[in-house]
Amino acid sequence: MQTRRDLLKTTTGVALAAGALAALPSAVFAKAPVIGKQAASFYRLKLGNYEITALSDGTVKLPMSKIYRNIPEQDAETYLENHFQAGESETSVNAFLVNTGDRLVLIDAGTGDLMAPALGKLVSNIEASGYKTAQIDHVILTHIHADHSGGLVINGKRVFENAILHVNEREEKFWLKADAAAKADKTLGRQIEQAEKCVGPYAEAGKLKTFGDNAAPIPGFGSVLHAGHTPGHSGIIVESEGEKIIFWGDIAHGDVLQYDHPEITVDFDVDQKEAAKARAIAFADAADQKYLVAGAHHAFPGIGHVRRDETNYEWVPLVYKATY
To answer: How far apart are CA 116 and CA 138, in angstroms?
Structure first.
């Protein structure tokens, strides 16, 4: 049975609570505006004595089921739907910065102003990560497609003013020394024009160097030719203290469908047959050797491992670490 004292205690408690609420600043109950922005997109990890910084150029919505080849569009869409990527999938564009302690090396350069506003965030994310474009000593391209070379220039000027640009010699010949027939081609012509615009200023400044198949672009950095997506498409190999990573470029577009079906290609492949063959080799080697790989179009930060599973291969993203 509630006594008068119990009633007074309850009443007093309610009154005190009401008074405390009334005394709180009105801002506590104000509606907050929706921010609409992500955090700066960079992610760091250690590779032996080196520091790797994954950098996002942004994401873009692409109707991947319409872009994949060697599979009916509806089959691709059903597969992607089962992996929650139906319709226009968010596709990452990634680049990577390697700090060896002596040199700062950028691998791929994003899109620049070619595909803004969804993309083109590489420079701002380089700066957010604590570096400046003027500090970069070398830029190595996996290949010269616009989403890898577009960020080399802005308004015709070299973004990486102090850097030497390195590309596979097959790439340089195919894109920068194209014949009239190639330039007149509906698909290739536009891409050649973009390549000349983005890479040309480095060549004119004497800042362009080529490397051979499976050769070192610069001392301490290797390459492996994976021709097909483009004629000189190359993975860039970095090793330190027994740890290894290969920056894959466009071995895979996305991180699900092609792992089950390496034979599936994309519209952007210059040589569809060779691209599929290169992907099968790259997947098998990564799964067997268990080294890290970094993909330009895997979900940011795009770094992980490849393992075999019951359906073929599987992409295993790197576990997030708050520190290294």
So the answer is: 25
If phi over 0 gives left and psi between -120 and 50 gives alpha, with beta otherwise, what is residue 283? alpha
The helix or strand, by DSSP H or E, that contains position 17, with its residue range, turns out to be: helix 4-23
CA distance 324 to 321: 7
Query: Is the CA virtual torsion 48, 213, 195, 88 positive or negative?
Result: negative
Category of 279 on φ-ψ map: left (φ > 0), alpha (ψ -120 to 50) or beta: alpha
Q: What is the percentage of the chain residues whose pLDDT exceeds 70? A: 91
Q: Considering only CA atoms, which of 172, 158, 167, 142 is closest in space to residue 251? A: 142
- What residues does 209 pair with on adjacent strands? 166
User: The dihedral of CA 236, 154, 181, 272: what is its sign?
Assistant: positive
pTM metric for this prediction: 0.90
Distance CA 292, CA 146 (A): 25
Question: Which structure tokens are listed for 84?
Answer: 């929650």
Query: What gap in Å lies between CA 30 and CA 307, rounded to an integer?
Result: 50
Letter string b/e over residues 98-122, b meaning 16 or more CB atoms within 10 A of that residue's CB: bbbeeebbbbbbbbbebbeeebbbb
Q: What is the layout of strands, in order, in the sheet containing 312-317?
A: 221-225, 234-240, 243-249, 292-295, 303-309, 312-317
Phi then psi for residue 59, to 5 deg, are: -130, 155
The string of pLDDT tens digits covering residues 104-161 is 999 999 999 988 888 999 999 999 999 999 999 999 999 999 999 999 999 999 999 9
| Greatest Cα pair distance in the chain | 100
Torsion angle defined by CA atoms of residues 21, 25, 30 and 33, in that order, rounded to the nearest 10 degrees: -140
Rounded Cα distance, 267 and 289, in Å: 30
As beta bridge partners, residue 234 has 225
Is the Cβ–Cβ distance between 293 and 303 less than 8 Å? Answer: yes
